[in-house]
Amino acid sequence: MNVSFDNRFASSPDEVMNLDTTRLRKKFLIEKIFEADVFHFTLTHYDRFIAGGAMPVKETLALPNPDSLKAPYFLDRREMGIINVGGTGTVTADGNSFTLQYKEALYISKGTKEVTFASADANAPAKFYINSTPAHHEYPTRKVSKDDAEKVTLGALEQSNHRTINKLLVNSVLPTCQLQMGLTELQPGSVWNTMPAHTHDRRMEVYFYFQVPEGQSVCHFMGQPQETRHIWMQNEQAVISPDWSIHSGAGTSNYSFIWGMAGENMDYGDMDHCKITELR
Under CATH, which number does the domain 2-278 receive? Predict the structure, then answer.
């Protein structure tokens, strides 16, 4: 088992205004999430958020304890959310096993010492997309299926943004310290997500794009509302969104994405909306 752990320092809006394409991608794009029998983690200093993935193929993978965390074990001072975007898999947390089907989620409590990841079929391995944030309290570990999620349908085909939001790990479904995760699915013919765009000064986000058809891409928009930038993204890549930045995307086809949030406010509706006609 190998572990890749990347550290990303925070950037101010003034700094980002002066970045070229290569440097913008280096600071915010997470290009590789899944690799056979490898953990890929990226820690951003925006709210100490970690995004990454595990794809067990030939072996059961044990959650490592990277030196950068400076902790006795990974979840000593952290909570974790997992959404499976591959074949059937099992996550075992301190001896309790949870089978995750495609698009099912698991919340793992702070203080959990041993976590392992396994696939039911090496030919169709599980792909465990992982988010983790600092935590101050132990809440129960719990599996959440799409049937358990709070669902909201927004947009319309006429605006190319007809989508269903599945709120999986949010405080209206189960208690967490600060981590929130969900899954948004765009309907055929729709390509825009999170439009009209917004910011929220008390939370940052990471978007993970998947179900992007072969040969297609997503253009992710970020930056201050009057100073936007874009990053072209491929299937199963993630992008970091600071609290001062919009986070929206348009694809050359419909797709799905997972949003993960962290910060001081758990109110999902805490948003400062930006009028479409005022974006620059």
Answer: 2.60.120.10
